Amino acid sequence: MSAHDTPIPMVARRSGPLKGEAQIPGDKSISHRALILGALSVGETHVTGLLEGQDVLDTASAMRAFGATVTQLGQGEWRVQGVGVGGFAEPAQVIDCGNSGTGVRLIMGAMATTPISATFTGDASLNKRPMARITDPLALFGARAVGRQGGRLPMTLVGAAEPVPVRYTLPMPSAQVKSAVLLAGLNAPGETVVIEPEATRDHTERMLRGFGAEVTVEETDEGRVITLKGQPELLGQRVAVPRDPSSAAFPVCAALLVPGSEITVPGVSRNPTRDGLYVTLLEMGADIVFENPRIEGGEPVADLRVRSSPGLQGVETPPERAASMIDEFPVLSVVAALAGGTTVMRGVKELRVKESDRIDAMARGLEACGVRIEEDADTLIVHGMASVPGGATVESRLDHRIAMAFLVLGLVSERPVTVDDGGPIATSFPLFEPLMAGLGAAISRANG
Ligand SMILES: O=C(O)C1=C[C@@H](OP(=O)(O)O)[C@@H](O)[C@H](O)C1
Ligand SMILES: C=C(OP(=O)(O)O)C(=O)O
Question: Catalytic center at which residues (predicted)?
């Protein structure tokens, strides 16, 4: 579903020191997976800390349409009564995944080996994103996609009546593709194998094991070889969702940039497959301390203490790090604009097929704010400056991360930065505005 109908312009102004504690919402990737695996399990799954952003709410509605019972018990506390592997019913209505690539791609995988059909659609952003990367491997199981030319939504997926297991090497580093293949493999006999030449976020493998599937991971010369034994009985679990490092990135980067700031950010996931931004910020000279490291809900977490860091220096991020920080490049570009020297982000072409073309969105927005950038198909280069003029209205292009990144820039630019539509922020970080205001950030509705 579309999270909002009319644009919500927002503005950020130069702010005094950010202080206090930032309670980040639950991880989006893990929240989607908790609902989907809960729906594919026998018995009851109890989730705490679920992200109640629109992307995840759309996945909850989809799981209901496939026959699971999904109930909100309290804030972030949800119950899923599953239908078991292979138990999805054919939905009576079109499945609208809104703005969410993760939602639609994982759900297509989850239904592809069940003999039912479902029609999927999304908002104007999602309906432009490539789906052949999913329907190609799902066809190997015996599923069939029918829809628009060019592999875009809306499309109908006809699940395989007699699925066969698959061995598939990922042609691009994508946890969504990996996860779709593994979820499809659940209802195929025999072993489904996914080979990923570059490691991507591993929440699906971790959580499948937690729900009782047999999953092995081998590091080989070809990359990570993930083997799933098909047709397990998944059993409902208790899932405690850790806080989202991709959402935490916004207040963390804001605190690094705004002079005199000191914030704490408790309980953020430090899964190594998600840690690239934090590695990069430390290399740039950021003052971030990871306190009280521990395991929560099967994921490594820590409490972050972040202090403003005036001497940040530009760095080069290598292509092999890109997957572990893929959603953080927009906000890293903002940090880079205020760092000494040049920051070169390599191996980032996947950014071109996110909610927007994020290389183009950042490049045009930063230029409008007075920052010098260079780009090619797979690289973004930002030339840092002591002070960014700002004073522009930037297009958020139905992309939550673009909107939040430019609002962070506005906190430290000479003149305010406006984003034409902050509505998409609700897809991943519904309480971004009050959370940032609570820290002392001057972010508000532009017409309010
Ligand atoms: O699997 C996931 O939960 C995600 C994988 C990434 O997408 P790709 O698989 O397209 O890289 C990431 O950008 C997205 O926000 C969440
Ligand atoms: C790319 C993202 O999400 P999705 O692919 O699920 O739309 C994101 O949250 O930055």
Answer: 327
